[in-house]
Amino acid sequence: MSTTVQTPPSRGLASKALRWSGMLWFIVAAVGQTGFIGFIVAFYGVRTVTGDFSGWNDKPLIDGYIEGDDTGNLIFAAHVLLAAVVTLGGLMQLLPAIRRRLPGLHRWTGRTFLVIAGFMALSGIWLALVRGTYLSVISNVAILIDALLILVFAGFAWRNAIKRRFEPHRIWAMRTFMVVSGVWFLRVGLMGWVIVNQGPAGLTKDMSGPIDSLMTFGSYLIPLTLLELYFAVQRSRGGALKIFAALVVVAAAAYTALGVVGTVAFMWGPCL
Ligand code: HEM
Which of 21, 117, 213, 237 could disulfide-link to 246, CB 3.0 to 4.6 Å? Predict the structure, then answer.
């Protein structure tokens, strides 16, 4: 007697729909994050390499270049330039082709991603708390929690990789990707909101209102929740649940796409 468990066709279809929705979201995110990397290189990279440090302030910032603040300027430069590297590293880690065909490269980009993610969190904490770069206390608390999550999640991803526990490693690495992308999600979330509402609708200048808090805390809590939903549904046997989750992920991909268009067209494009 065969012990093979047959998957009902509808459930197979539901699993496929879930996988495809995840891929669709990843493609949208990859396009948007490539735009983010392009902006960082073209704006901060070019100005830094040519010694035009005060040119960092050619775009709206809280504190970019401050004359006489050599330490602050150095940490700001390292933070924004390594933002391009960590974003590229995160994307490369998620490409299945690299994981499967170039495991050596996957290990090295993985180590680089986790170390730089740690640096991004620590330098971000320094900018926020020591340099005092923040708009409001509540928005500062939101980004500081993101920084702590980056440090904790990256630690778990690293530990599981060293112990060769690859399934938990994959899960913690995905969680790390989501919280490291929080800064990018925030920009995408804000621009998506502005486009949907045809204006800033409830956003305030110092990011202290309820909609601002939805955006700042939501920039990592919403993607993390969706990721956990994706994992839970992937493990479950319910076809209807998978279809529902796939629809949620497609809606998230559509909102992300709107936000990506907004960041490129209205946030970064005009600065170049
Ligand atoms: C780990 C992923 C992160 C990335 C990719 C990233 C990226 C960036 C970029 C591109 C900028 C330049 C601002 C702009 O042009 O809009 C920036 C500035 C800044 N970042 Fe981060 N960041 C990350 C994490 C953090 C964290 C965790 C914190 C705080 C705890 C933080 C605090 C800051 C601060 C205070 C500034 C200066 C903002 C200003 O002066 O307007 N960053 N970051």
Answer: 21
